[in-house]
Amino acid sequence: MIYTRPANTLYPGNREAIKRYMPEKHELVYNEHERKILVTAGDKSVELYSDVDLKEFRLIDEVDAFVSETAGLFDELIQATIGQNQLIRQGSYFDKLGGLQQKAARQYKRCIEYQNDLSEVDSEAVAAQLEQLYKANKFLKHYFRALTIAQSLAFSQRLAIHYTETEDYLYLYSFVRNVCSTLEYLGNLMESRMGEGKIDLDDKSVNAFDVYEELKVQELDEVFNPEQEMVIPPTNQKMKQGNIGISTRSMKYLWDKRCDIVHDCPLVIPEADVDHLPEEIVSTNVITTSDAKKVAHLSFRIHFQCVSMFLNFALSYLKNQITAMVKAWYLEQES
Questions:
Q1: What ranges do the domains of the chain cover?
Q2: Which one, of 324, 306, 315, 13, lies nearest residue 139 by Cα?
Q3: Cis geometry, peptide bond prior to residue 234 (ω within 30 degrees of 0)
C-alpha cells in the first residue's frame, strides 16, 4: 500500500510567502510493500529512508508537518507588520501580536516534546528528524526576538499616531526614546546575524548612534521597498523609502536630543522666548519648537527605516532560516 500526504497540507494554508521560499510542492510518500519513504516534487522522486515501518513513517510525517507549520509563523508576522498602522488604528494589532506570541509558545512547547520523544525512539530514520527539530527550535528563538522587535515598532507607531493627532510633547518625547531603543535592539540583532559581528550585544556602552553608523558601514541598512514613496510627518515631506535614512550629523543630533530628553526632560519653548532665558537654562533644559519639529522629523524617518529594515531582515535572513529548516531535509538526502 502507498501512503501519501497531500502536497497542500505539507505547507499549511498554501501561503504565498512559503510558496516563494519553496516553489515546488512536495509530497511525502510511504511505500508499505518496499518499506521506503520518498519525497516527490513534480516528476522527481527522492528516497529518504528505507526499511521503515508504517508507525515510523507516521511519526516522521507528523514531525515534517510540525516543521512546516512552524515555518508559516513568520509570514503571519510579516503581514501584520505590513498592515501595522491600520491594525493599530483599529485597536487590533496588539491582540494580533499576542495571538502570534501564544502560537509561538505552543510551537516551542511541542518542539521540546518532540525532541524528548524522538530521542527515545530506537530508529535511525526517526532519530534523523532531531536535526529538523533543532532547526525548528532555533527558528522559534529567532521568532521570539522578532516578536519583541515587532512589539517595539508598534509602540513607536502608536506614539507617533498620538503625537501627530495631538502635537502633545509627552508623546513626542516617548516616541523619540522608543525609536532610538528599537533601532539599537534591531541593529544589534541584524548586525550579529547578517553582519561581521563587530557589535557586542552585551556591551552597554554601545548606543543607537553607534549601531546606526555600523549598519551603514556594513551596508545592512537596506530597506524593504526603496522606490515606495512615503510621507514623513510632521512636515509631510514626500520621500522615497530608499532615501529615508539620515546622515551621520543628523543621527548625532537626534541622539544628543534623545539624551537631553531622557536626562533633563527639557521644556519646549518658542524661539522668540529663548532670548530672555539664562544660558545655563537654555543649554540644558530647553528645546525650541523648531528643534522639536526637527527631532520629530528625524525620529519619524528612523522609525520608518526601522520598520523597513525589519521587513527586509525578515525576508532575507529569516527567509534563509525557513529555507534551511524546510528544504534542507530533502536536499541533504540528495547530497
A1: 167-323
A2: 324
A3: yes
Distance between CA 134 and CA 254 in Å, rounded? 42
d(CA 196, CA 216): 12
Strands 27-31 and 36-41: antiparallel
Yes or no: say if 284 and 266 are a contact pair by the CB < 8 Å rule: yes
What is d(CA 246, CA 235) in angstroms, rounded to the nearest whole number? 16
Q: Which of 13, 49, 14 is nearest to 28 (CA)?
A: 49
Q: Which of 42-46, 76-80, 292-296, 321-325 is least confident?
A: 321-325
CB within 8 Å of 68: residues ≥ 6 apart? 10, 11, 12, 18, 326
Pairwise CA distance, residues 159 & 165, whole Å: 10
Average pLDDT rounded to a whole number, residues 8-36: 56
Query: What's the rounded Cα separation, in Å, for the pair 112 and 69?
Result: 15
The tens digit of pLDDT for each residue in 210-226 reads 999 999 999 999 888 89
Q: What span, in angstroms and rounded, lies between the C-alpha atoms of 143 and 153?
A: 15
Place of cell 511519526: 59
Q: Are 52 and 125 in contact (CB under 8 A)?
A: yes
Quick one: cell of 216? 551603514
pLDDT tens digit sequence for 171-194 = 999 999 999 999 999 998 888 888
pTM, two decimal places:
0.83
Contact 147, 136 (CB under 8 A): no
Q: In terms of DSSP bridges, do strands 2-5 and 27-31 run parallel, antiparallel, or are they unpaired?
A: antiparallel
Q: Helices 54-71 and 73-82, interaxial angle, to 10°? A: 10
Q: What is the pLDDT of residues 78-112, one digit of tens each?
A: 888 988 888 888 989 999 999 999 999 999 999 99
What local confidence, expressed as pLDDT, does residue 19 receive?
42
